[in-house]
Amino acid sequence: MRNECIDAVQQAIGRGLTRAEVKGIEGRIRDTMRRMAREDAQGWRSMSEADRLTEAAKRAAEELVGEAEKKQQRLVLRIASLGRTLQFVEDAKAAGARGMDGMLHHLEQTDIHAKGVRQQYFTGLVDAMQAINGRLLGMIENAEVARAVTREIFGVDSGSKVAKQAAKAWLDTIESMRLRFNAAGGDVGKLDYGYIPQPHDAVAVQAAGADRWAAEVLPLLDRGQYFHEDGRAFTDADLTGFLKSAWDSIASDGLNKLEPGQHRGAGMLANRGSQSRQIHFAGPDEYLAYMQAYGQRGVLASMQAHVGALARNIALVERMGPNPELTFRTVVDTLRKEGESTRVAGKVVDIESVWATTTNQVNQARWARLADVAQGVRNLQVAAKLGSATLSSITDLGTLALTARFHRLPVLHTAANVVRAFGKKDTEFANRAGLIAESMISDMNRWGEGNIGPGWTSKLSAATMKLSLMNYWTDSLRRGFSVTMMGALGKMSRGEWGKLDAADRAHMQRAGVTEADFAVWKLATPEDWRGSSMLTPESIKAIPDEALAELGTPARVRDQAITKLLAYITDEAEYAVVNPDLLTRTIQSGGTLKGTATGEIWRSIMLFKSFPIAMITRHWRRTLDDSMTTGQRLAYGASLMTGLTALGYVALTAKDLRDGRDPRDVTDPKVWGAAFTQGGGVGIVGDFLFSDVSRFGDSLTETLAGPVAGTFSDLARLTIGNVHQAGRGEDTHAGAEAVRFLRSQTPMVNLWYTKAALERAFLHDLQEAMSPGYLRRMERRARQEWGQQFWWQPGELTPERAPDFGAMVGE
């Protein structure tokens, strides 16, 4: 340790340094010198060594003072967050539950809060996302617009008005998020040029090798960012050495810095992003060149991922303090010492797994290449097998109606909003009001799994959802419900918190809305939209600062009120049109890490099971809601069963008509059993109650093991199985099985509106040629299982008659 460094800082700060401050002081001075050299290299070189040390010491002293103030701020915030967390525990115990249940409730509210933060900040990026969003169903990013936006972010004129607006929206959004994160205890600095994420593809970087990667990146760097402490610019050799060191960290995902036996904690979340950026590109062209060669995502996907991750971090520090991990550990360890089990939600999951899901630790891949390959396989299953899932989603109308009734929303008004939500004007209003469609800002898929990740297979699966109209259907239904909720809150917020209906107040409190938030809502002047007074983020933003001063810092009070509004509406919309909640996502991951054998196997098993699980964790769990009486709970459960069973029959009928079969006979009790399992979200189970194969042609064991295992099982039967059959002298039907296998693995072949035409145009004839008697066996199976006839005969180009709807009543 250089004593002159310590002396210089002590002189600048006007006091002695503590032991903690002395630690690393030399490194701090050296880093400060490099930054100051970068700011004015010529002026810095003209100074004497003593003057450089003095000036650097002054800057370092200022930083130490700032860090001391930040430390004090974090201490206050940590104490407050620990108190809030413990209050959840005490409230749970007071209600006769366990403390761990209180912690679960806290984490669920935190997850809902993160949704609100995400919606809030994506609102300003809608135009930018739509401008960059590519052609071919978003599979190809609009490179011209992406380049123009990137140029504007780097401060280079692109000549495009749209790009200028998009870049400004991006920079304003991330700056607002940075300031909000710092207000909650964070310490993220600001670059002296426009910020844009650098998502490195660790697999590609590793494959290139240190020498090749460093050689290719070297000419892309901004030389004006790299200086020694004395003002000398880095030479090629200096930069090459720096890049090779950077390669070690990127290629190993930081494991090169791990000491054997060293504790690997998450560290203080408030420090996330506080490290200075090390790789500085010379400009937009150099940045894009690097991203094309070694980037993990395109420009738009990088922006979306960054906003989503920062929204989650903001929610965590706001709800659980600057060090959420420490807050969680303190409370959970205390409860464990009291003898409480960490199993929660009926002992289905462990609180540790819930925490890992809340913080997204479960999606931090241990081995990136394994995670990419396994995810790609699952994405292909989504693309190949979910082309007709939209027909199953007819049952969304049942959960939407039930959720609207739960909140006492006007039936006709809700229905009208849902119909209008399919139109452009309502979409634009919803986007401006923060009701951003899930398909636009997230990779969550209720039929598949969350975090489908980058790459062509993810784009293919996303394109399947768009082509099948699943996204259009889901987004529009949620949008219509959300607009209705926003109108209801506009009216409700004119009243007093204490005079609200007890159930309404309980519903808001469950999502984290407090009396203080409601007081802010009351100060807003609702917007008029189609004759309804809507409580929107814009109406809350318009509240004057002086009106909010008594409630706290106006900016923070306003942000919290907007976040709570969007969080509450978004979560309820995911009841209306079911989407996985925190518990579902925890079950899906099983608390395992991506990029591990266990984690990838479990995720493959859980593929396509998120929707039925979410039906249980959301609606069937809601029947236990404390805000309802026993009679109301029974009524809710009965409405859920009857409504979804009826719509389940409609979904079954739609599928039968698609396949050319007459509707099923409603007088057959077996049909209503199938309708219940279809509509109640447990359709996979229902396939085995009423048939010997699943909807994808797999056995019970194969379906429980997941579609990936089923695919490998089918491939084994097609190859090894047929070889064994041939060896025994049996008919193999290998050709027909090959056609069936290829069809089941080919993306977009099974789209619900083209499936019948493709089958009858050539697939049926091909399978008949490969396996004579195939079509007759198909007809016989339909008669034996459900007593059905075909109105459009297999193998015929045109139907011979209209569907017989009289078959619905046994005629």
Task: Provide tags for this entry.
40 helices, mainly alpha, 811 residues, single chain, two-stranded antiparallel ribbon, 1% strand, two-stranded antiparallel sheet
User: For the report, how would you describe the main beta sheet?
Assistant: 2 strands, antiparallel
Strand line-up across the major sheet = 1-2
Which value, in Å, is the CA radius of gyration?
30 Å
The number of helical runs is 40
Helix content: 55-70%
The proportion of residues in beta strands is under 5%
**Uncertain regions: pLDDT < 50 for 5+ in a row?**
255-265, 443-453, 686-696
Provide a descriptive summary of the structure in words:
- 64% of the residues lie in helices and 1% in strands.
- It is built from 40 helices and four strands.
- It is globular and about 100 Å long.
How would you briefly describe this protein structure?
With 811 residues, this protein is mainly α. It is built from 40 helices and 4 strands. Strands 1-2 form a two-stranded antiparallel ribbon. Strands 3-4 form a two-stranded antiparallel ribbon.
